[in-house]
Amino acid sequence: MINNIKKFIKKNLTLQTPETIFSKKEGGNISLNKTKILNCGELNKDKIFYVIKRTPGTGLFSNVVFVLNHLKIAQKNNFIPIIDMSNFKTIYNEKRKLFGTFNSWNYYFENVSKYSLNEVYKSNKVIIVCDKFFHHFIYNMDHKDFEKIIFEKIKINKKFTKLCKKFDNKNFGTKTLGVHFRGTSYKQSPGHPMPATVKQMIRLVKDVVKKDNIDKIFLATEEKNYLEVFKREFPDNLAYIENAYRSDKNDAFKLYPRLNHRYKLGREALVETILLSKCDSFIFLNSNISSASMAFNLNPNQKKYKIDNGFNSKNIFISMFYWYLKKILPDYLGGFKNTLNIKEF
After folding, report:
1. Contacts by residues 9-13 (CB-CB < 8 Å, ≥ 24 positions apart)
2. Which CATH number fits domain 158-333: 1.25.40.10, 3.40.50.11350, 3.90.1150.10, 3.40.710.10?
């Protein structure tokens, strides 16, 4: 009984690893639990290829951080890295080719080396990494150890930089505040930072708008209700990606409501992250998107304001209710403070 309850909570109420949209019968997912060194052919006998894969993976920038850790290993050992998210499917892979490829890495980023997967899998020495995110890996994309690797290897496809530039020119102001407002499953996720309440966020935004002389607000949120609140509170100076998928449930990877939906989820995460990085001020909660935004560092003079509501319980049962309880309790009884202090990060 207890195990069934735990499974229900994990499946429906907490952050989870979504499934790919490829069934086992369709193939494409190769299961390797340990790092393998393979002799795949006679080509490139003087080279060692390092195949980076993660299946099914998780969020876009969690996958990027995983790749960065392995690029660091490849660099240290003089391996030639290549990313295979074609034979090893991620949660963003579509069933048909997009942009001439089945490799979901190339939906969003350029190749990290000049070699093709076809050549690599005909080569003499091939290492294929396992999917495990090791405890000694770096978890934050904005870590100083990744600065050079990001600059040299993580090249965003130009169509996205052009799209962001067009959006920036049309919608950003003289001074723009970027707001990353996490909701949905983040309120119930064990061990994760607890997001701001609506009351906290609105007060914080108004304080920063006044402090930094902001004339435009760019909102990135996955929660539909939060967007509606911001549209009411800031009707004259709010910008956001209009066609991004938003919901008041944790169902982004459970539904498939539009053509190329999985690809578009990744596209929206990438575009919002680039735009947040370009803003003059930035309100954020610790997450892979905020970390990526700071790692891209597209506005070196950006003022940053970190939300600190503490962490949710690691207990899966307590975490279901803890954020909601703290939301309704007065702060002298352990509830959230109504006003978050303006503190630059």
Report:
1. 9/316, 9/317, 9/320, 10/316, 12/250, 13/185, 13/188, 13/250, 13/320
2. 3.40.50.11350
